[in-house]
Please model this.
Amino acid sequence: MTDTSQDRHYTENVQNKLKQVESLLNKLALLEKIIHRQDLPREDRHSLVDTLAHRQHLAALRLKLDSLHPADIAYILEALPIERRLQVWDLVKTERDGKILVEVSEPVRESLITSMNREELDAAAGRLDTDEIADLAPDLPHDVMHDVFKSLSIEEREQLHAAISYSGDSVGALMDFNMIHIRDDATLELVSRYLRRFDELPDHTDQLFVVDRDDCFKGVLPLNRIVVNEPEVAVGKLIITDTLQLHPDEKAEQAALAFERYGLVSAPVVDEDGKLVGRVTVDVVLDFIRTGTENDLLNQAGLREKEDIFAPVWESAKNRWTWLALNLCTVFFASRVIGSFEGTIVKFVALATLLPIVAGIARNSANQTTAIILRSLSMGQITRDNARRLLLKELAIGVLNGLVWGGVSGLFAYFLYHSVSLGIVMTSAMLLNLMVGATASVAIPLIMQKLGRNPAIGSSVLITAITDSGGFFIFLGLATIFLT
Amino acid sequence: MTDTSQDRHYTENVQNKLKQVESLLNKLALLEKIIHRQDLPREDRHSLVDTLAHRQHLAALRLKLDSLHPADIAYILEALPIERRLQVWDLVKTERDGKILVEVSEPVRESLITSMNREELDAAAGRLDTDEIADLAPDLPHDVMHDVFKSLSIEEREQLHAAISYSGDSVGALMDFNMIHIRDDATLELVSRYLRRFDELPDHTDQLFVVDRDDCFKGVLPLNRIVVNEPEVAVGKLIITDTLQLHPDEKAEQAALAFERYGLVSAPVVDEDGKLVGRVTVDVVLDFIRTGTENDLLNQAGLREKEDIFAPVWESAKNRWTWLALNLCTVFFASRVIGSFEGTIVKFVALATLLPIVAGIARNSANQTTAIILRSLSMGQITRDNARRLLLKELAIGVLNGLVWGGVSGLFAYFLYHSVSLGIVMTSAMLLNLMVGATASVAIPLIMQKLGRNPAIGSSVLITAITDSGGFFIFLGLATIFLT
Model:
């Protein structure tokens, strides 16, 4: 639950807030430099004035931070280099630490948590809902988790236990427990009286969840319907029973697609016995979608995980090495493919100059196909019925591209080296390589999906390896047969 | 507004629904083939039975479609090849056409609209809200828009006019007009009585918008607060005034980030005079985010726009040609760079085999950096203060990678060709090229952003061109100096 009571300056652009914090930090840094100058006598008048100014700016910064929404502070922390980030983190009121930790991205969260001691972490986690504690759990030290666990009620312990046990890509991981349930035998009058006992309803309460005596899920009652109907109407007459029910073990991606398709704000999570165990809300789904597509972008570019842009060089380098190492193997292989045709290249050095054309166009074209296939896969739109059709279509585009761009490249080669046969070899090699690329870029993501792996990870490295080495082999092979 | 009254089988997985529709279509196709077989006499008994079965399956398919949510039908239409898509489209009840057209992706929408005549389109558009008509407007023929416009009330005409006039990436384009406004001098009692006049509130009504006599925006009153407070409380005591206000000309991306950060369900749109003109809801924001990140993925892969996976080969090819043509220019250039060192290659044919290593590793590493920079840019986290730091950091990673992977590659070259100087040239070339790549992949997106262009479009083509041609030039240049 976010606190809505305080003045949060929502109307101001968050980039402006960042700039204001940065400018205060700049002034502080400047003043600190002046104060700590060794060449001036310590009791110099300036120093006193500066110390005062320093204190003033510090107070201004603290005030500014207090006025910001936890999500805005999270945003600012992510955009600041490490030392400044920790400086700001120290100034944030302790009681808000928890909410902010939930909001920041994982690598930045790690950098903040390592700067905190056990008491601070206990205090931060202690103020959170159980589903939020579950989100932080992987990053919290064991002793802190132990303290937090001890401080919870039995019901909360069960919730936390459940929330932690679901795998990260399941509905269970998106779930919270802040749902309001009512009985199906009540009247609106009774429901209204029950609701007035709350000071405020949990965020994203667009509907109440209706259960029977055994906590079995019966349907939902939108707040909308409560306010447009007369108090004497029975809940049973207004509930919607044909509503989306999620299951804690279902894939989170499926739930996200359902939220998008049906424009949901919240949805009940029901276990296999039909019991209501929690709810999922649209804000969490939004986060999940943003993070998911971001990770896809990063994975496709060959990064292992999300990076703190100000992480130490060494850590960032490690994040990138898995794929670079794999890439090194594939280019070594491509290099040996060329090496095995050294004899041909010695006779026709022109071949060496044309190699990047054969590989480059096929690589680019395969990337386009991969992007389309990955999108359709993530939307769940590729079925057994249409996969063959897609492959044939991409092959056809490959042939078309091969004739057009292969033709242009053949002419390019002919005009440069005045050899008709070189031109023909060039065009044929590009045609064949584009077909190889099209096949690979449809087949590889589909096969990876079939094997239960994320097709966004590693597809493009593999496909590039195939169009590179394949292209070199086809081009130099044809040249060896027809030119020598 | 989506219709919530009907039974929509929410609880069933949409992929299953697609499979059911596909299997019905398969049966229909099979029956049609049997019925139209020319070698059997027309009055054959079988034919009658088959015709009956055909009619039954058709009825079953129509029934199935009637039971589906418009968004599910949109999903199914997108996943079907063109002829089957149009077959299903014909079976959908006319009164639901409009809602479905709003839901499908643009290229698929075009394929559906071209299959409809003026009357059908008039009927489809006539049932939509003005903001939905505005979404369809670019794809509707002029005469249909004319008919639709004539059928609207004066107020609706003004809304439609306003909605169409905002640019596609502004808040105005996300806005709808289904907000409920109340006066700040009312009591909850009065508000409740007003709300009971509605049969149902518009979707995503989590708050009412409070305005004064002149329609100036004063604040919001969450439904939450209505249900937890006693009827006699005055609206003025409960309204939240420090709430996010969007402006119609603001960038939609900014609004989306605000929805994510603050977990909003709806937000008021207010013009420069402080008048309430519309609202934005989270479902539209979700669509916007999904489409935006998808377009980024497609653009980075070198596609001009989103593609219907079953578009005719010719249309898909055109969508891909802009970037392939540009790519052809860059590889021709790279080819000429190699060509200008033909003399060196003739002497050391080993150089030709090592070229893909120098270019490939730098390309891959630059892609990683670009992905991180693009992510930070889209989150608005790169400021003047931290851009220099980022460049230095990426350069440092480039040097580290150059020493490690360049070193390995140097050894590879040495062991293959037994030349120490070749190994040193190899390592140096990779070190330099990785630094060139790091600089380009930080600088190019930042410069494009500065020039007001979308940095996701074209960055990677440019950066690849630089690491390819640059790598060839550095490697062959160093080789010419030190090996010959």
Chain B has three domains: 14-174, 181-300, 313-483.
